[in-house]
Amino acid sequence: QISPDLVKEFPDVLECTVSHAVEKINPDEREEMKVSAKLFIVGSNSSSSTRNAVDMACSVLGVAQLDSVIIASPPIEDGVNLSLEHLQPYWEELENLVQSKKIVAIGTSDLDKTQLEQLYQWAQNCFLKQVSKKLFRKASLIFKHASGYHCGC
């Protein structure tokens, strides 16, 4: 668990800017650049805070899409482990942003080996479930179309 005092200190989305580095990216130069952002997870686990942070980064930089987004786990107290359940909402929203083409690639930092393995296994299972549902829907549509076909012979 994260200390409640630590959670109270941070807003849902914290805008960090360096005054001399806020120039928007020139669209003509965009293809030659890789634009990455690192999101630091704090108390709130709302998917809207993740989406807002990505939208803000795109807006400030003047780009429609980020090439990569890394989520960094929050600072934790000694002897306390960050649970997979805490990371899942953030990761799900990042995957949604990849599907909507707002982000190209996602990753994480500051996890230990066990946490990374757990997140990987969970994400793989979610991905396989999504693919299975899509394939089932596609097969159902093909079957419905084929069963309604009459050759007229």
TrEMBL record:
Pfam families: Aldo_ket_red. Pathway: Sulfur metabolism; glutathione biosynthesis; glutathione from L-cysteine and L-glutamate: step 1/2. GO terms for molecular function: enzyme regulator activity; glutamate-cysteine ligase catalytic subunit binding. One of its GO terms (cellular component) is glutamate-cysteine ligase complex. Keywords: Glutathione biosynthesis. The keyword Nucleus does not apply. It comes from the Eukaryota. GO terms for biological process: glutathione biosynthetic process. Residues 19-136 form the NADP-dependent oxidoreductase domain. Heterodimer of a catalytic heavy chain and a regulatory light chain. Belongs to the aldo/keto reductase family. Glutamate--cysteine ligase light chain subfamily. PANTHER family: GLUTAMATE CYSTEINE LIGASE REGULATORY SUBUNIT (PTHR13295), GLUTAMATE--CYSTEINE LIGASE REGULATORY SUBUNIT (PTHR13295:SF4). This is GCS light chain.
